[in-house]
């Protein structure tokens, strides 16, 4: 990587460096991460950033809780508890919980656009009607093991039924295809919003520019338009939400009326990993872990049957509208590594993809892990999710590598993650060639997950 801008901070240890090195060598990075989380703390949760994201985001809070477990574990449990306080009656955990003290025009689409107060079964606070990848059980279990305590044990006991309800909602209401996988109803639900993975299914969404003219985008106030989704994509995002909202955010009959329905590898791998984490939590609090392990195995089987492409050796989203796998080869294809019972054959195939020139994973990485195939014609190193490197995806891939005993590659990815922040600070995402920081500065999950990898 080049363009280092923080010369006083080491670019990261050689693969295999341990926690003893980090205690002294990475002291300034720890201080930066601590200050970032402290600066973004908002009474019972952490905002992703003080600029573009002034509310609480679902999977952000999960990753952030992992970071807090290294600093102030009580905040880790407050983070998750406050999020699940906004859980809907059907079990869905909304992807945004709105802070009523933030002016309505500070973020689009704001609480008025979602109109959750008009929906039966929504919580008393204003939220969106969408969800995000269910990484919360994985985060809760990871945070507890990082900092076990009586308070953490009590928090796990409180969270457990809510985490189970989240999984139940996804396994029932969202199994639109009937094959054991949850469908996402919007690219925002994938977490990787603007990925080329969604170009094919998005092309079928009606294009109505008038929808966007009725609103004002706020993201391009804080970030360059060339780094963000296009106006056409945003108009389609609004159209999809409008369709879902018109049905009262109901999930029955989606196959007959909703314009975007996709089975996502990351989303469903997160479901399987969540069941494995719930098995651990259940064992800790005296519940039966067996059903969770059984559900995890069934999810893994469905991911293999529905989303694995043996011709390319990678996982791809399935568009339920066409019943076809989407063509783009993105980092989504690597994320099923987080499934502990992924068969060895598929593990090897995914690693071949990861270590190829498309993604460049190595024990000593020359460049950051990109979010899209860097050899593809539509690779964009600056645009949101169409090329840049993201700390949370790096963390998930590294978690998968460790799960399958690939310590050397995990160490290479760890060193790359440390180097990114050491050179550019706690940015939202990073240039996949130079490592330059992009998006929002002082970004919470970047700080949180840096603390976690430094602790290893």
Notes on the structure:
It contains 19 helices and 12 strands. By secondary structure, it is mainly alpha-helical. Strands 5-6-9-10 form a 4-stranded antiparallel sheet. A two-stranded antiparallel sheet has the order 1-2. A two-stranded antiparallel ribbon has the order 3-4. The longest helix has 23 residues, at 150-172. 55% of the residues are buried. The model is unreliable at 1-22 (pLDDT under 50). Residues 1-28 are annotated as: Disordered. Belongs to the glycosyl hydrolase 63 family. This is Mannosylglycerate hydrolase MGH1-like glycoside hydrolase domain-containing protein. Residues 53-446 form the Mannosylglycerate hydrolase MGH1-like glycoside hydrolase domain.
CATH topology assignment = Glycosyltransferase
CATH class: Mainly Alpha
Beginning-to-end CA distance, first to last residue: 23 Å
Helix content: 40-55%
Strand content: 5-15%
Biased composition (Low complexity): 1-13
Domain Mannosylglycerate hydrolase MGH1-like glycoside hydrolase: 53-446
GO molecular function: Glc3Man9GlcNAc2 oligosaccharide glucosidase activity
Region (Disordered): 1-28
List keywords for this structure.
single chain, 456 residues, mainly alpha, Glycosyltransferase, 4-stranded antiparallel sheet, two-stranded antiparallel ribbon, 19 helices, 47% helix, 5% strand, Glc3Man9GlcNAc2 oligosaccharide glucosidase activity, 6hp_glycosidase-like_sf, glycosidase, MGH1-like_GH, hydrolase
């Amino acid at each position: 990587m080049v363009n280092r801008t923080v010369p006083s901070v080491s670019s990261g240890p050689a693969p295999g460096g341990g926690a003893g090195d980090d205690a002294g060598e990475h002291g300034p990075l720890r201080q930066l991460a601590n200050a970032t989380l402290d600066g973004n703390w908002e009474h019972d949760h952490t905002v992703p950033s003080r600029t573009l994201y002034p509310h609480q985001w679902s999977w952000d809070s999960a990753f952030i809780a992992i970071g807090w477990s290294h600093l102030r574990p009580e905040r880790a449990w407050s983070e998750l508890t406050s999020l699940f306080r906004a859980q809907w009656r059907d079990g869905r955990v909304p992807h945004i919980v709105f802070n009523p003290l933030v002016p309505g025009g500070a973020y689009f689409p704001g609480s008025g656009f979602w109109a959750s107060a008009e929906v039966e079964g929504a919580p008393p606070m204003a939220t969106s009607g969408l969800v995000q990848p269910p990484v919360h059980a994985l985060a809760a279990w990871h945070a507890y093991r990082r900092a076990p305590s009586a308070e953490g044990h009590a928090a796990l006991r409180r969270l457990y039924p809510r985490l189970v309800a989240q999984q139940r909602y996804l396994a029932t209401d969202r199994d639109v295809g009937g094959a054991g996988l949850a469908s996402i109803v919007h690219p925002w639900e994938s977490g990787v919003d603007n990925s080329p993975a969604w170009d094919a299914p998005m092309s079928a969404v009606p294009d109505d520019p008038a929808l966007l003219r009725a609103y004002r985008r706020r993201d391009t106030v804080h970030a360059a338009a060339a780094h963000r989704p296009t106006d056409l994509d945003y108009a389609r995002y609004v159209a999809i939400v409008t369709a879902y909202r018109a049905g009262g955010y109901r999930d029955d009959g989606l196959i007959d009326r909703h314009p975007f329905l996709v089975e996502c590898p990351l989303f469903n791998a997160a479901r399987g990993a969540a069941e494995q984490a719930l098995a651990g939590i259940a064992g800790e609090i005296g519940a039966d872990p067996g059903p969770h392990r059984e559900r995890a195995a069934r999810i893994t089987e469905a991911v293999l049957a529905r989303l694995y492409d043996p011709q390319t050796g990678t996982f791809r989203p399935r568009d339920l509208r066409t019943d076809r796998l989407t063509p783009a080869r993105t980092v989504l294809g690597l994320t099923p590594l987080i499934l502990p019972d992924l068969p060895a054959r598929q593990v090897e195939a995914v690693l071949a993809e990861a270590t190829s020139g498309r993604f460049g994973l190595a024990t000593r990485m020359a460049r950051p892990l990109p979010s899209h195939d860097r050899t593809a014609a539509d690779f964009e190193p600056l645009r949101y999710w169409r090329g840049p490197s993201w700390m949370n995806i790096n963390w998930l891939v590294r978690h998968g590598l460790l799960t399958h005993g690939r310590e050397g590659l995990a160490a290479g990815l760890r060193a790359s993650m440390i180097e990114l922040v050491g050179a550019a600070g706690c940015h939202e995402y990073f240039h996949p060639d130079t490592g330059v920081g992009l998006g929002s500065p002082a970004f919470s999950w970047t700080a949180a997950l840096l603390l976690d990898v430094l602790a290893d």
